Amino acid sequence: MTWERRSFLAGTAALAAIGPGMAIAKGTGMYGLIGKMMAQPGKRAALTAILLDGLADMPGCLSYVVADDPADADVIWITEVWRDKESHAASLQLPSVRDAITRGRPLIAGMERIAETQPLGGTGLATS
């Protein structure tokens, strides 16, 4: 991908302008995941309700976003940011998460881990 100098400079200026409002957390060791989940046909709303219901009290979770894919009626995108990888692993043992997994499993047609990331910060991202 090539960038025009003008586009690059405009983008850099825009980032500089919003920079003071961003939570910057370089070197924190945060852990992120981006996943794609495919619901059984016609079951996306029921599955997202279960996913959202299972979010209570997850220690170390800084951000957990469940989003519908506007181009595919059965796809859900899940974006997670955790204090560290261990917090994510521990969350899988929480009763609320295990219950959500049990209730949601029959509604899932497939899953894909798109990316494992190391978040640096961002607007709205709680870092403490």
What does this structure look like?
The protein is α+β, with helices and mostly antiparallel strands. It is built from 4 helices and 6 strands, in the order H-E-E-H-E-E-H-H-E-E. The strands form 2 sheets. Strands 3-4-2-5 form a 4-stranded antiparallel sheet. A hairpin with a 6-residue loop joins strand 3 and strand 4. It starts with a helix and ends in a 6-residue tail after the last strand. About 15% of the residues are buried.
Main pleated sheet = 4 strands, antiparallel
Number of E-state strands: 6
Shape: globular
Q: How much of the residues is beta strand, in percent?
A: 25-35%
Alpha-carbon Rg, integer: 17 Å
Question: Order of strands across the biggest sheet?
Answer: 3-4-2-5
Helix- and strand-based class? alpha+beta
What fraction, in percent, of the residue positions are helical? 25-40%
Q: Tell me the span between the first and last alpha carbons.
A: 36 Å
User: How many helical stretches?
Assistant: 4
> Overall mean pLDDT score?
80
Query: In terms of per-residue confidence, which ranges show pLDDT below 50 for 5 or more consecutive residues?
Result: 1-26
Can you write the helix and strand succession as a string?
A: HEEHEEHHEE
